[in-house]
Amino acid sequence: MRALTVEPLKAGSAEVREVADPEPAAGELLVEGLALGVCGTDREIAAGEYGWPPPGRDRLVLGHESLGRVLSAPPDRGFAAGDLVVGVVRRPDPEPCGACAHGEFDMCRNGRYTECGIKEIDGYGSQRWTVPADYAVGLDARLADVGVLMEPTSVVAKAWDQVAKVGGRSWFEPERVLIAGAGPIGLLAALLGMQRGLEVHVLDVATDGPKPAVVEALGARYHSVGMREAVAALRPDIVIEATGVPGVVFEAMTGNAPYGVVCLTGVSPVGHHISVDIGGANREMVLENDVVVGSVNANLGHYAAAATALADAELGWLSRLITRRVPLEGFADALQARPDDIKVVLELT
Predict the structure, then answer these.
(1) Domain named Alcohol dehydrogenase-like N-terminal: which ranges (predicted)?
(2) pLDDT tens across 178-193, in order?
(3) Please, what are the domains in the chain?
């Protein structure tokens, strides 16, 4: 079968290769790979910035945003041939920390977790793959064309879970959320905000292309002003920051409503320095009981929440998030970001 592989830490090493068909171990599903979402993590691994192959190997099968159809399944595990599934990305460390031992491997304390397509486990960028039944999540059959959005939706499901838990330390009835960034994470965060009945605002630098129309079709409001201006006008109860741009991050932290929650989901580059009034920020956060929380990855509960959110969403709207579909052989094109991209998907079949 064909698979998209890379030699981690070696730029330009990504290529489609013939690899052996996988053999499912006891308790594993055998899955036909249908589609693979491409994100910044894949591009960074392909650029040689990081990544870890499986032990004893030089190459890693790339890809963690999966979608497949079950070919065979162990009995009495809740799956059958023909089911639409995704594979969970992260797995707990072999000698689990307390969080991993309690099923919260997204909160791993010792860093010895593994991740499909990223760290020491082959990813889902192949025409067939296997996954333990415990780390497979079923999807509504109606999501066959858009179910590849499941992994990023699980990330924002966790972000919303974190917001609710932090806000729940006292009375908390938020009305307004500002999402910074109209990429897949930002738009899916907006979707979940709308499903919660909130007034949703999305901020992005794009003034044309698909993003403004996609936000408006959701029933949210689109803004292309600066973050400082946006938070001053809106005074949001919640900010979900999905850009990782340092200046935007800081302005998000200092402009929300009293008792506000800022959830950071974008990963910033290192070595970029800006001048900020940290004393003023500290004063405001303390006196207003504000909270800033980081959120990354997802556990099984978040995947289940994501599956429900996608099943409840309007399929036509979800399909607008996938702006390019590229055959597996065209992976190099898929790994090149374009200005009008929202989500790029590799077709594996």
Answers:
(1) 26-138
(2) 999 999 999 999 999 9
(3) 2-139+314-347 (3.90.180.10), 154-294 (3.40.50.720)
Report CA 201 to chain centroid distance, whole Å. 20
The pLDDT of residue 101: 95
Residue-averaged pLDDT of the chain: 96
Give percent above pLDDT 90 in the chain: 92
In single-letter form, the type of residue at position 57 comes to R
Is 0.90 surpassed by the pTM of this model? Answer: yes
Query: How many alpha carbons fall within 13 Å on the CB side of residue 113?
Result: 26
